UniProtKB/TrEMBL annotation:
The keyword Zinc does not apply. Belongs to the DedA family. It holds the Pfam family VTT_dom. GO terms for cellular component: plasma membrane. InterPro entries: DedA_domain (IPR051311), VTT_dom (IPR032816). The chain crosses the membrane at residues 16-41, 53-78, 139-164. Keywords: Cell membrane, Membrane, Transmembrane, Transmembrane helix. It is found in: Cell membrane. Residues 34-159 form the VTT domain. It is a multi-pass membrane protein. This is DedA family protein. The keyword DNA-binding does not apply.
Amino acid sequence: MESFDVVIRYMQDYGIIFLFVIVYLEYLNLPGLPAGIIMPAAGMLIARSDISFIYALSISVLAGLLGSYTLYAIGYFIGTPIVDKIYEKYEKMRPSIDKSFGYIDKYGNGGVFVSRLIPVARTLISLVGGTVRMKLRGFTFYSIIGITLWNAGFILAGYLLGIWGR
């Protein structure tokens, strides 16, 4: 619960900018606060402020998409060497990365959508999508849908808790 309180304090101090930065970093698959804490905290705060739900969701989707583009570019330009390095250094990530490759093999562009709704795979799919050089248009389309659904679910949960907790 301490992590949740920290997020609430930072969001009160820095507002929507904090939401953007933390979601961007999370979609880069960097260790830190997970979406399960960040998004509901944002929802609770917007329920008690003049920030609209749609605005906060839009900012979170934009941040998620930009973070995804960053990982996609790393995969696109560095690709297999970076994946091999991750396999060597972080052996426990291999199954998640392999699943992401499998989703693309099985579902094509739709694999991006499916992955966006699965913890861990939802951020790794960007690196994998770049590595296999998916077309950016399909990657973007399915990412927007998946990111929107994922973020909306968590922000809405916090928003409803914020309303009911008044």
